[in-house]
Specification:
With 262 residues, this protein is an alpha/beta fold. 29% of the residues lie in helices and 30% in strands. The protein has helices at 15-31, 49-58, 62-74, 151-159, 176-190, 244-252, 255-258; strands spanning 2-7, 36-38, 77-84, 93-99, 105-110, 132-135, 138-144, 164-169, 193-198, 200-205, 208-213, 217-219, 225-228, 235-240. Strand 12 and strand 13 form a beta hairpin. It is globular and about 50 Å long. It starts with a strand and ends with a helix.
Length: 262
């Protein structure tokens, strides 16, 4: 399969602008032969939680319909994290959706670990379910940004049979090395592919300005980089991967079967 990493400069509160830019990147990804294009965390909105909640209240289906339209118009599967209205009210979710080329949702995952330093839990409802889904590409697991710091989630995903984990993120400087090391470590530890897509550009937040570091990458089950984006700028990178390689690596070095629960 060919994956495109859509490292995007997200405009805070620019819903229409962000979806339009994502559509352009999806079109370029499809022209490059991609079957799946992965966007960063909150790629349709940025992190203005008040504006996001207001938008969801007034147009609860608009973002989801926009993502579906991008997939359908470009005949490509799309994955990325967006704000999502919680069923029955309550705080919105930070939801990673995987949508097929027909515009229909294949799977979704609500971010479990909320960033306390950013007080994300005041504005976002935490997910409760670890998700690994059967897809046309194989079994894929999902994680969002801060989840990357919690290896037990990825151990669970490996136990659920994931051969690829998609990570959508907004990791800023000065933690760029954490982003790269943790993404690579999760691939090595669990012997699966990790497609980690990060925002780039700057966003003015109440506590200061966040400068997102980019450096999106796909790591293979040995931890080798298959594709990488540069730091600090919009970029589209492609990775050709075969998920059966995860089985081959696990057969050569049976780490997962040797793991002892403690």
């Amino acid at each position: 399969m060919r994956i495109a990493l859509a490292q995007m400069n997200v405009k805070r509160g620019g819903f229409a602008e962000n979806l339009a830019r994502a559509g352009q990147m999806a079109r370029a990804a499809r022209s490059g032969g991609a079957e799946l294009v992965v966007f960063p965390e909150m790629f349709a909105s940025g992190f203005d939680y008040g504006k996001n909640a207001e938008f969801l209240e007034n147009s609860p289906r608009a973002i989801g319909e926009g993502v579906s339209r991008i997939a359908r118009e470009n005949s490509v599967s799309v994955a990325g994290s967006v704000p999502h209205a919680a069923p029955g009210g309550g705080l919105p979710r930070n939801r990673l959706c995987l949508v097929g080329p027909d515009g229909r949702e294949i799977a979704h995952y609500d971010k479990i670990h909320l960033f306390g330093m950013f007080r994300e839990d005041r504005h976002v409802g935490a997910g409760r379910k670890v998700v690994a889904a059967d897809t046309p590409f194989g079994r894929i697991g999902f994680a969002v940004c801060y989840d990357l710091r919690f290896p037990e989630l990825f151990v669970r995903l490996a136990g659920l049979g994931a051969k690829l984990v998609i990570v959508c993120a907004a990791f800023p400087h000065p933690r760029s090395e954490h982003w790269r090391v943790l993404s690579r470590a999760r691939a090595i530890e669990n012997q699966f592919f990790v497609a980690a897509v990060n925002q780039c550009g700057e966003e003015a937040l109440p506590g200061g300005t966040a400068k997102y570091c980019g450096l999106s990458a796909v790591f293979d089950p040995w931890g080798e980089a298959v594709a990488e984006c540069p730091p600090d700028e919009e970029s589209l990178a492609f990775a050709d991967i075969d998920l059966s390689e995860a089985d081959e690596v696990r057969a050569k070095m049976p780490v997962l079967s040797d793991r002892v629960p403690l």
